[in-house]
Structure to design on (287 residues):
């Protein structure tokens, strides 16, 4: 029993770490602010989620677990609002989303850290 | 009035879980704090179906596990996209139709879209959702229709 709990919590914690790492990698690789939001979304849904649930499993059924799950509930309620606010702010600031046809060929590069989305923003009309 | 009792009960349960001290003084502070919070909410006129959506609780138990599974699936999809040697992103703004009848339902649908990585709601005009998708060809509409249908069911409002 105890071994099952340990293995399960380790699997969840490592899975969470994987999504956090991949999300961070996405922040560097993806071409503009809008696509990077999707990577950031990974870190605070599955990244944080699997780590919190992993800690809850490790901790067992008691008060601390209830509090951990509350943290997750508040995080999942608030993070999409923050993401939406960033997207809205970028759009009202005149930033145009990067598209394959639109701006350069950064998608082929793979290194993709160039901020091609920002260039088209100069031409965009701030509302 | 019913909603005031609900709100007080939820707030006080939160107080007890976060404090877990059962002295008269601290429980008394909890009772008083929650009463004041409910009174402020009543004065602000926010004790309605939108701010205290207790009528959704039962259906949420069915919706949330489904949403978590969707979140997991799209996380795996975006992770594969990021880890692929060649970055195959094809982002675009797409439009979804929302069939919810209340603002609360639209709010839940918009947040569900944003919570699943790969799609972020960037704007809402009436029943038209403007969504930024990281790979537009993966948006065939079927999954979003499914989510739309489920949120409309969750909302459960009778037709006007």
């Amino acid at each position: 029993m105890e071994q099952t709990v340990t293995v399960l919590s380790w699997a969840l914690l490592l899975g969470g770490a994987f999504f956090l790492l991949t999300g961070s990698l996405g922040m560097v690789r993806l071409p503009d602010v809008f696509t990077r939001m999707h990577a950031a979304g990974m870190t605070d849904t599955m990244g944080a989620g699997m780590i919190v649930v992993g800690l809850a499993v490790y901790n067992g059924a008691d008060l601390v677990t209830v509090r951990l799950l509350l943290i997750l509930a508040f995080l999942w309620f608030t993070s999409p609002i923050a993401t939406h606010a960033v997207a809205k702010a970028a759009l009202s600031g005149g930033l145009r989303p990067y598209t394959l046809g639109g701006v350069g060929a950064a998608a082929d590069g793979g290194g993709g850290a160039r901020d091609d989305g920002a260039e088209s923003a100069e031409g965009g009309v701030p509302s | 009035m019913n909603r005031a009792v609900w709100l007080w009960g939820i707030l006080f349960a939160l107080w007890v879980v976060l404090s877990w001290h059962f002295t008269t003084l601290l429980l008394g502070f909890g009772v008083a704090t929650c009463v004041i919070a409910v009174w402020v909410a009543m004065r602000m006129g926010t004790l309605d179906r939108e701010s205290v959506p207790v009528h959704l609780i039962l259906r949420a138990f069915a919706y949330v596990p489904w949403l978590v599974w969707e979140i997991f699936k799209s996380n795996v999809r975006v992770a594969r996209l990021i880890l692929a040697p060649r970055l195959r992103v094809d982002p675009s703004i797409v439009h979804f139709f929302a069939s919810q009848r209340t603002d609360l339902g639209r709010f839940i649908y918009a947040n569900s879209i944003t919570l699943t990585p790969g799609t972020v709601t960037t704007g809402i005009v009436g029943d038209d959702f403007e969504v930024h998708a990281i790979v537009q060809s993966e948006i065939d509409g079927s999954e979003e229709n499914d989510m739309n249908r489920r949120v409309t069911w969750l909302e459960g409002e009778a037709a006007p």
